[in-house]
Structure formats: C-alpha cells, structure tokens
Amino acid sequence: MSKKRVLLIYPRGGANKTADAIFPFPLQGLTQLAASMPERFETVVHDENLRPLNGSAQADLVMLTAMTTLVSRAYEIADDFRSRGVPVIMGGAHATACPDEVAHHADSVVIGEAENLLPQILADFEAGQLAPRYTSDSPADLNAIPFPAMEALSWRHRFFMASIQTSRGCPLACDFCSVPATFGRKLRVKSIETLDEELKGIRAKGMKRVFVVDDNFTADRARAIEIFGLLKKYGMTWMGFSNLAIADEPEFLEALRKSGCTSLFIGFESLNDQALYHKNRRYPSRAALADAVDRIRSYGIGIQGSFIFGFDEDTPEVFSDVVSFVMETGIEIPNLNILTPLPGTPLYREMKEQGRLLDMPWDDYDMSHVVYRPAGMEPEELQQGFAWALKYLASPSVIFKRLSLRRRQYPFFLMANFALHRAQTRLANTMWNAPVQRSLEARGFCTP
Hints:
Layout: E1 4-10, H1 28-36, E2 41-47, E3 61-65, H2 71-83, E4 88-91, H3 93-97, H4 99-102, E5 108-111, H5 118-126, E6 133-135, H6 155-158, E7 162-164, E8 167-168, H7 179-183, E9 188-189, H8 192-204, E10 209-212, H9 221-233, E11 237-242, H10 250-259, E12 261-269, H11 286-297, E13 302-309, H12 317-329, E14 333-338, H13 346-353, H14 379-393, H15 396-402, H16 410-430, H17 434-442
Parallel strand pairs: 1-2, 1-3, 3-4, 4-5, 5-6, 7-10, 10-11, 11-12, 12-13, 13-14
Antiparallel strand pairs: 8-9
Helix pairs in contact: 8-9, 9-10, 12-14, 14-16
Protein name: Radical SAM protein
GO cellular component, one term: cytosol
Domain B12-binding: 3-132
C-alpha cells in the first residue's frame, strides 16, 4: 500500500509585512514534528516564505501551524484543502489562544504542545475519526522528542545555521509575551546527554553555527555552562537569548566567550523605566544599560538588541532616544518592534477590557503595525516613528558608522545587517506617512 502523504505547512506573511532576512532561521517546531512522524507516512515540510503553495499541492492530511499574524493565510490554505476533501489540523500559538475561531477553518484544533498528542491524532486520522479538539494536558518530555528533521528543509534554512532547543517555558511574567500561554512558565530542560547527541548529529552534517532557540538560554547559569562545554567540544559558534544580568558576572562572560558565543539576543524593551521590566530591574537608567552593553562586548560578544515602541510611558521622543542609544552603544543588530497585544496574553485581555484595540486584521499583529490606541501619542505617530527608526538604522551609511572594523566577528555582523537592510527598508517605505513625518519633525521628533 502507498504511504499516506502528510503536508506540514508554515504559512507565509503578506507582501512587505515582514523585516526578515532572505535566509530564514530553521523551523524548529515543524521539523521536530516531522521527525516524530512514523515511517508509514510520507512527510513533507513546506515553508511558504520560500515557496508559496499552489492549488495543485497534494496531501492526504494537512497540518498547519501559525502565529497570529500568519493565521489569515493559514485559513486560506486550510479552506482550500478542505474544499478538496483533505482533512486539516491546525495548531500553534494562535490555535492555542483562539481555538473557537480556528475551529471554523480546521477539522481538528491542537491546543498546546503537539508532540504528546501526535500518536492519538494519527490513529484517529487513520480510523477516519479525527476529534474536533486535542488538548495537551501534560507538557512534552523534551528528551523523548526526536531530533529535528533538518533534511526536510530547504538549503536556504540551513545556509547560516542549525537550530537547537535545550529548554521550553519561561518563568518571567512579561505581559506582552505569549510564550507562557503556549509552553508554560515552568522551565523544562533536555538532558546534557540528549544535547550531546543532537550536537554530534548537527556537526556530522557539516554545520558549525547554531542558534539556541530557548527563550532565555542563560537563565540557569550552571546548566548553561555545561552546555557551553558541549558547544566548545564540537567547535560550534552560536547565538542565543539572554538578558543583561550576565553583564555583572565576569566568570560567566568568560565562559560565554570561550564557548564560541558570537552574539546574544537581549530584550532591552524600553529605555524609559527599567523598573517596569522584570528582566532588567538592576539597570535603572540609560547610562547603566550602556555600561552593561560595554561590559558584555568587552568579552567579544555582540548584541542583538530588541526594543519595543508603544508602552504607555512612551511619547514621540522615544524613537530618537532608541536610535541614539543604539548608535552610542554600537549595538550590532538592532531589532525594533511595536508593542503588540497578542491573543492569549495579559496585555491583550487588558487592552480589550479598556476598549483600546483597533479594528485591525490579524495580519497586522506582526509587531510592525499599530493595532491598539497608545497612551502617549496618536496611532499614526507610533506607526511613522517606528518606520523612521527602522529605515534610519537600516541605512548603509548608518550601518558602517555603527559597526567598528576592530569588532570581533565584524564580517558576520556586516553581512547580517545588509541581509536585513533591503527587507527593513522596503517595510518602512510601505508604511511611510509623509505628513505625519513632517509633523513629528516640526515638533523636534524623528530627526537624525
């Protein structure tokens, strides 16, 4: 008998809706699911950001995952396959937060993590008895999940690096973050032995660069140092997520340096009042933040700095403040975002109760578009200020000015910035509002 064909799909975003680079990071969730599929199925992973689906795609079962900003496209795909009699299962962050809505477009909705549910889902599919909902009542054992099926991805996913997940869940309580709703607040970890085998497999495929996708990889210092040893053992250079607290720990920074750490993604979020943000409470001022950046960089570790515009304390002054901070500190890769109340988060519930949500499509819940009424400025000003800051920092002359030739890994950071340059500039241009820009400039805002 021929194998049943299962299509695992990651939907694309709309045109000019993203600031991502041409070489996307490897898909972690779908490749882990693909690796968990029994051999009696033919499994295909399709990332629409690389190649859009066409109407002739064939499958016996479709499984879709989608963040909120991608769910409209996911619905289009699901409706098309269902019209042809192909059953569709949808999971991911949006399905977990809005299962009733998703149920209008899918035969089954998966709420929470899918790995523990997969055997029952497949058995029900083969019996022709898919349930309307599958809810994960217990977290997945990360040591029992097969290593991601990297071979299922296009070479473009693997051009820069492989990805690895050492833990799930986040104990922090940022009200704008959807991670706790999807993976829980309890930190779950893979064993060192499991990670050793996974890194050995990545290295055997000839890959030397790794992105650690954990939401806060360095939270457990002792465990992180153990993993550093594995990364060093296999000669990896790597990037991951952290917070500024490591700046006060010279021994840990030295361990990071020796492990091959190229850069860390750090959430600065706001320069206004660090006391509001649990991650950076020990840095109460802009000067203290800058000093922390300098200490981390003194160990040869670059910073991908994330900033969010639109907190209630923000006025139009915030855009120039963040741009000048990025330039003064020389942050290697700035990551700019608009505060976005994602479904399932405390922020979404709060703004909905306050009547501040604008009537915007899910497509715009992408951290680049304003979907609520801010407190300290008009929505149009927040949108334009974001576009101005994004375009300014993506300018080639500004990139060269910000990056020093003496900086460790200078060629990598230069390439990374220019890989993002085109998409970021295009995105800024699509939302550019000349009258609002002139108004901001006349009041002394959004000027170089």
